[in-house]
Amino acid sequence: MTLTFFEKFLWRARGALFAAPLGTSAPVAGPLVYAGLFSSPSGVGRAARDFADGFEAEGIDVARFDLTPVFDPGRGPELTMDAARAALKAPQGTLLAHVNAPELDRALLAMRFFRRPGWRVIGYWVWETTAAPPSWRAPARRLTELWTCSAFSAEALVAAAPRDMAVRIVPHLVRPPATVASDRPGFGLKPDDFACLTLADARSSFHRKNVEGAVRAFRDAFADEPRARLMIKARNRADDPASFASVEAAARADPRIRLLEETLSEERQWALLASCDVFLSLHRAEGFGLPIAEAMALGRVAVATGWSGNLEFMTPDNSMLVGYRQTKVLDPAGRYAEDPASHWAEPKHDEAVAALRALFASPDRRRALGDAARADMRRFAGGETASEALHAAPSTLAAFSS
């Protein structure tokens, strides 16, 4: 976002303009403005679209403010925002800002949303390690309430939230389309291939997603197996060119590994998930793990690190959980700063290799786990729904009070 002189002045004065209290933490009459990355193909963008669609499916009018061009100037917006701009002029209402703490002030500035006593201001934040950064405390004071996707993320955010602020667990919606068509030929897969898939976005840290660990586990599990395939769907090469180069070198060295960088439509993204046999996530930390959940909802087997937000919906009965040891947070790309109060997980390589081999050897086991995953995701309820949280009275979750 290029700032005008006036905007730069407002940016420097943001501490006073956005300072708490912005408004009320109780449900209010008036419009619901949802600010999110609606034009972005990222998981954050997909989650915002799903939430807004979910509100509307329950009869709640949503004025969408697309923040994509603010944080990704080369993309969007794909929707007009006249309704959202008009709604923000109302004397009272609810603003749901689906961006993390570092982006909050910039989002408020883009919307020209300053202190509004009659407005309820909700932030939807997600954090992936055991403690949110201390720098998140100041942006938290701009809010009247915090939502997040899992109990794991809620515990991490409590350290950043004011003591009397509600932190609500409002999990991502996991809603596959009514019909999802696999397209193995379109992704270069043969009918009898054993296809593994892993996803990563350099903007949210290749090191956290542990793409290199997934590559190593795949190659050690299937050193001499021509039918094994690994697809790596990755984005934003420019944000971590070194990690991309490493993965690209692995793909060049092994014709069974394919790196997919093109932006996929949501239909193609679902088709990619449906085309795999196993979703592989040897992550070091997840706030939730939306792609894992989506793959499971399609009846695909997930092999994933048995730690962090994905344990909201993963169990030994519906997936293959990989053991781990706790380690200090060390991220070469600098997305996650080293913090003595925080740690994440190092998945056990040998267990990941054994899980992949076991699934390859037993189609019946794959089928049973996939059926269990699909059934459990249909029943999944990890906290309040978005509409329940929207209409709930303010409260602090005692389980996460500091």
Spell out the blueprint of helices and strands.
Blueprint: H1 5-12, H2 14-17, E1 32-36, H3 43-57, E2 63-66, H4 68-71, H5 82-87, E3 93-97, H6 101-110, E4 119-124, H7 137-140, E5 145-148, H8 151-158, E6 167-169, E7 194-201, H9 206-209, H10 211-221, E8 228-235, H11 241-253, E9 257-260, H12 266-274, E10 278-281, H13 290-297, E11 301-305, E12 320-322, E13 324-328, E14 343-347, H14 349-361, H15 363-379, H16 386-391
Parallel strand pairs: 1-2, 1-3, 3-4, 4-5, 5-6, 7-8, 7-10, 8-9, 10-11, 11-12
Antiparallel strand pairs: 13-14
Structural commentary:
The strands form three sheets. A six-stranded parallel sheet has the order 2-1-3-4-5-6, with helices on both faces. A six-stranded parallel sheet has the order 9-8-7-10-11-12, with helices on both faces. A two-stranded antiparallel sheet has the order 13-14. The chain is built from 16 helices and 14 strands. 35% of the residues lie in helices and 17% in strands. It has two domains: 7-171 and 383-400, Rossmann fold, CATH 3.40.50; 185-379, 3-Layer(aba) Sandwich (Rossmann fold). Helix 10 (211-221) crosses helix 14 and helix 13 crosses helix 15. It is an alpha/beta fold. The two termini are 36 Å apart. It is globular and about 65 Å long.
